[in-house]
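User: Quick sanity check before I run a bigger batch. Here is a single chain. Can you write out its predicted 3D structure?
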Amino acid sequence: MTVLVLTGPKDATADLVIAELNERGVPVHRLDPGDFPESLIASARIGPRRYAWGGDLRGENRYVDLGQVHSVYYRRPSEVRPRRDLSEQDAQWAAAEARAGLGGLLAALERTWLNHPQRNAAAGIKPLALATGARCGLSIPETLITNDPDEARAFIKSLPGRVAAYKALGTQAPSGIDGEPYALWTTQVRAAEITDAVSLTAHQFQEWISKAYDVRLTVVAAQMFAAKIHSSSEAARVDIRTDYDSHTYEPCDVPDSVAAGVRKLLDVYGLHYAALDFLVGQGGEWRLIDVNPNGQWAFIPELRNPITQALADLLEGTHDHHRAVR
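Assistant: Done. Predicted structure follows.
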């Protein structure tokens, strides 16, 4: 039985887990679905007397029997790349068929997933994640999503301090002049700064929380690994992603009420893994601000090894709370 790792060619996070599995002598096959169909071949069958797809995946120096896959680590696979000699219309059709065919075969594997792509997709819808978190008993910030400038101004004026946090809803940033995507950081905004441009698309505004620190909570099955993030720069205190060099990390305990809510949240989505972001106020209240079903975890030095081992345990099947997500 083997662990199938689906990710792109450069993924330092997956490398850590693969190295741990190799050290344990666990068979691992690493494939990038983006290599399909140019250098990755898939063949599988199903029929009246066969209740699951049987077949194989063949890549450069790789052969994977789908029937021998024990678990799947779905990290950061590349997009499928149709042949370059196809017309634009044919390339679009080929890419769609590849996603439906290869993606469908993989999705049909009834194995332990970290995490199943359909589960990731559902948990990655930010408005749904906030509502689900609240229903699971987690505290969330007062939040408005609107394309109405007047509603945005009124919302901000109703908040303590009359200031809000503007946060992009998606992970796809627009491209700049050179075609490269640029980051959309969280920013502070006041009512007077709201313009009619808000009407052009959906915008998310949240109450501004005077935080003591951020917390990144990484969950692997029933195990929780939390760390306080203290930021010394003003930019990082607004958005921790702007200045990682200013951070110091401190492992911490998770309040019982938060842990119970997080377990419910993962159960609702059917996730084995998630990285959740909290703001902790001056009074100690944890507020959920983001659910990352495929978020990073290796950037916290003190937790890197324990999380790597917990992920390897789950993929190997030695975790106490092993359960298949279908």
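The longest strand covers residues 50-59.

User: Great, the batch can go ahead then.
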